Amino acid sequence: ACHASKLGIVIALTDAAHKGYARALKGEDPMSRTLTRCAVALSAALLLVAASASTSFAKSPGMNKLTEAGQLGLGFNGAFNFTWVSNDTLEGGDPANNSTLFLLLSPELGYFFSDRAQITFNAGGLVRRLARTAESSNTSTDLLLGVGAKYHVPLTEVFTFIPGVGVGGYFGGASRPIQVTAEDGTITTADESTSTYGLDLNGQLAFGYLVGERTSLITGLQLHYLLGNENISSLDRSLTIQTFNTSLNIGIFYFF
To answer: How far apart are the C-alpha atoms of 182 and 14, rounded to whole Å?
Structure first.
């Protein structure tokens, strides 16, 4: 009965998220809708893992013990929402600004170098929609690598407050429409593959809840500021891309 109740909560949350994202994504392209469904499925999977985990806290060392110096852990985080992007245009003038898709999936390795203080290393995939004009946009897909520091404040034996900061870099690619002039003077528009790279500054205000003997469900507010460039080789130009993202992060962390 307990598991059935938890499963019902997971289904209700997943359905609500799907309906909300579907309304927000009206007018977006099929890729955005596909990514939405993937993100909702990931959120449901993480919630289901948490709901199905053992709640035998009597066997758990507790958060004070799990966050002592020398502890090692492995986690997985997901963040999905809509975000503000500023993107230079080939025509010059004001950058193209828009609120658009932001999806981040990231495995994480964490080590407590002193009591409560943790250093983290992560590598993940980043997907963004970049505005090209008021009417068009393309998808940028990047590999994100980073290092961070978090401080775990045990509020109870199973509940912690986790502020943190991080820095990293990303690289990948996108596409951008460009105008091509043929020998006969005919001008056509074609999509050219571009390369993207830049810096990621991030922070979090999160909470962790022990759902098993050594398994913690983590959720909270996550912020990312990405500053980078997009290189267009055929035009020998590099354009600036800025992204400021706030999102609700959900993840799971296992203490060894």
So the answer is: 51
